[in-house]
Amino acid sequence: MTEPSDPLADAESLELLEDGLRKTMLSTSGAELDAALAELGWADMLADMPEQAVPLVFRLLGETGSHASVLNDVVQQAADREVGATPALPYAGGGWVVWDYQNATNSTLGGLPLRRVEDGGLLRLADARRALGWWLVGASRAMLALARRHALDRVQFGRPIAAFQAVRHRLAETLVAIEGAEATLALPGDDNADLTALLAKAAAGKAALTAAKHCQQVLGGIGFTAEHDLHRHVERVLVLDGLLGSSRELTRKAGAGLRARGSVPRLADL
After folding, report:
1. Which segments constitute the Acyl-CoA dehydrogenase/oxidase C-terminal domain (predicted)?
2. pLDDT tens, residue order, the chain (270 aa)
3. How many whole angstroms separate alpha carbon 236 and alpha carbon 109?
């Protein structure tokens, strides 16, 4: 008889895994991070525990500012194809891109090795959109942390700017947007997987754009400088929002689908 797993032990294992992944992502990125993740068993995690592995890995990519081609693996697995290939991915405006480290020198999209291609094929994107949503949430939290730290450290008129209501409102609105996106990403998508994932990616993209706008305002001019990390996160979320459909495009697509359907399905039990 199989003994039930210990929730505390599982939580401790995930915490240790998160610590290890964070350290790895803080020290390497790109093709080197792909190799490191392979050694850590990313393929097995994706196959055996995707509900835990995908949110964890993609959120940490956003928080650390690193990047890896793991989105390709999520797309390939959803299509029952071999992990490790580079499928063409839809991009905002009707374009297509390929995540390809072999052509990293030609990258012009937010520091990511994305090159434009003529056309793609039919793909199952629900899992990939959820994964990108977690990446956007992680980047949003990173921007919020930078803005919060600056608001506590920056002193004007004899007190930290975090004491000013206008600054507090921007940080609070950012946090609400992030928490809302996370809640949407956590929704079960058994019966309406495509719609739920589409809305989750749209919410995460909107949250990331909100974070970029408000955190830039809190940081002021220093946020534009090459010495500060904020501008890297801003560039990254602008690209990730467009990948697999921008928040604006996905919102319109969801609305058009619901109008054609004539009803709105229940996506969450409140």
Report:
1. 125-247
2. 445 555 445 778 888 888 999 999 999 999 999 999 999 999 999 999 999 999 999 999 999 999 999 999 999 998 878 777 788 999 998 899 998 877 555 556 777 889 888 887 778 899 999 999 999 999 999 999 999 999 998 888 889 988 899 999 999 999 999 999 999 999 886 778 888 999 999 999 999 999 999 999 999 888 788 888 899 999 999 999 999 999 999 999 988 888 887 766 666 655
3. 8
Tell me the DSSP string of 40-84.
TTHHHHHHH-HHHHHHHHHHHHHHH----THHHHHHHHHTT--TT
| Strand-pair category, 155-156 with 159-160 | antiparallel
Question: Cα separation of 140 and 239, whole Å?
Answer: 13
Structure tokens at 91: 């991009």
CA dihedral 124, 127, 128, 130 (to 10 degrees): 140
Would you state the structure tokens that stand for residue 18, as one six-digit string?
């998160």
115, 106 in Cβ contact below 8 A? yes
> What fold does the segment set 125-261 form as a domain?
Butyryl-CoA Dehydrogenase, subunit A; domain 3 (1.20.140)
DSSP structure string for 92-110: TTTEEEEE-GGGGGG--BT
What whole-number distance in Å separates Cα of residue 58 and Cα of residue 69?
A: 11
